[in-house]
Every structure is written in C-alpha cells, then in structure tokens.
Write a structure and sequence with these properties.
CATH topology: Rossmann fold
Strand order of the largest sheet: 3-2-4-1-5-6-7
Strand content: 15-25%
Distance between the termini: 19 Å
Largest sheet: 7 strands, parallel
Bound molecules: magnesium ion, zinc ion
Helix content: 25-40%
Number of helices: 8
Shape: globular
C-alpha cells in the first residue's frame, strides 16, 4: 500500500488537471461566443483584491458592463461588498467543490449559469486568497493578474514564481503604506522582472485612488484590442490561451 501511494496520487492529480483544462476550454468558448473579456485576479488573503474591485467597478459604468465571480472558502462577505455597486455578483464557496484553496474551471462553469454573459463586456473572477495553486488552474480567462500588497515584501515574485510568470499584468496594492514599510521598490521590481521580464506593473492604492486611472486605461485598451481581434476574421483568429504550467504532482492537497 505504501509503495502505491506515491504514483496513485500523481495519477489522480494529473487527471484532475486534465479535466480542468477541458472545462476551461469550454468556458473560454462560452466567453468568446458572448464577447466577454475575463480577468482572473489572484493574490494572498488581504492583498486587496476585493478593495481593488470595489474601487474599479464604480468607475467602469456606464461604458463597460461588468460582473464579478468571487471565490472564497467560506462566507459571502466579499460578494456582499460588491453587490451594492450594482453589478451582478456570484459567490462560489469552494468547500462544496472540494478544492477549497483555489477556483477550478468547473466551479466557474457552474457560476456562469447565474450570469447573463451576453449582456457583459467584462467579467472579473476574484480567486480564493492564495498565491500558490490558483496559478496552476486555467479557468478559461483571458488575463491573469496577481495582486501583491507592499506589506507582503519584495521577495514574493521569486518565492511564488508561477503566479508572476503566468501574469499578464501585475498590480501592486496599498502603495499608501510605502512610507511606513521597510520595502525597497526597486528590489521588488527587479524580482518581478527576473521571473517575467516584460510584464506590466501598475502601482495602486484603493484608499487614495492612486494608480486607478492607469488600471482603468489598461482595461479600456485591453477590451478594445480584444473586441477588434474578435471583429477581424483571419486564419489566425482567436487568442492564445494563457495556460498555467502544470507540474505533475505539484498540487497534492
Ligand atoms: Mg476578497
Ligand atoms: Zn489549491
């Protein structure tokens, strides 16, 4: 039995990831048909994902029609923060999906049944607070954006390289805390660009509103580029999915 434990575990994990990628591709297809751009926000608990969404959502209307899927292990408290902003919000409680510490594609697929995708331009997925395994699971998103708060320290990009290597943009949060923290922003940026040399990095504070204009510009440019691509028929039509690098057995919990 002991000898069988290792290989069996690896087989199970591999099968889960393969099934996940299949459903992620289905999700991607649904997003393409509905013409909705999907952003997966990942980051540690307390990185400021919900706070960024609160600050962002109110500035998108009426030009951009958005909705939010929120993943948490327990409680609907994040969804309750988003709901007053007047956008559709679906809370996934991951305990019931058996993958408590990250979102998987099938949980997102279930959540999509609660949304009128055709009516949306932009869908945010706030992943479960965790800088590790959310980076391993493709949800069918177009962009994955890790948030990193200044309080977490400048070493995080090199300690959690997958989250930052697979990033399409990185958002630094809580910049208002900078004067109070022993953090070297140059070292942080150097660490980030060591794992993802060309990734964009926007410095924000949901408290002061700093950097939000840049972030909204990024959203606006990215959405119009994506709509242009969808409208232009060409043999190479379709975006290249950002697929997280799965390592067999790397997700063993
Ligand atoms: Mg949150
Ligand atoms: Zn996990």
């Amino acid at each position: 039995m002991d000898r069988a434990t290792g290989p069996q575990q690896i087989k199970v994990v591999t099968r889960i990831l393969r099934a996940n990628d299949q459903v992620a591709n289905e999700n991607r297809q649904r997003f393409a048909e509905a013409g909705v751009y999907v952003i997966d926000l990942i980051g540690s608990p307390g990185a400021g994902k919900t706070a960024l969404l609160e600050a962002t959502i109110s500035r998108l209307a009426p030009e951009i029609s958005a909705a939010v899927i929120v993943g948490d292990i327990a409680t609907t408290s994040d969804a309750q923060r988003i709901a007053p902003l007047g956008v559709p919000v679906v809370q996934i409680i991951t305990e019931s999906f058996g993958g408590a510490c990250h979102l998987e594609a099938h949980a997102v697929k279930e959540a999509l049944n609660q949304l009128d995708l055709e009516a949306l331009d932009l869908l945010f997925i706030e992943n479960v607070g965790n800088l590790v395994c959310p980076a391993e699971f493709d949800l069918g998103q177009h962009a994955r954006i890790p948030l990193l708060s200044l309080a977490e320290g400048e070493d995080k990009p090199i300690k959690y390289p997958l989250a930052f290597r697979t990033a399409d943009l990185v958002i630094l949060t809580k910049m208002d805390l900078c004067p109070h923290l022993p953090i070297d922003l140059d070292v942080l940026r150097k660490n980030l660009w060591q794992v993802n040399p060309h990734v964009g990095c926007i410095e924000t504070s949901a408290q002061t509103g700093a950097g939000l204009e840049k972030w909204l510009d990024w959203i606006g440019r990215t959405l119009s580029r994506s709509q242009d691509q969808a409208a232009t028929p060409s043999p190479t039509k379709g975006t290249t999915p950002v697929v997280a690098q799965h390592q067999e057995g790397s997700h063993s919990h």
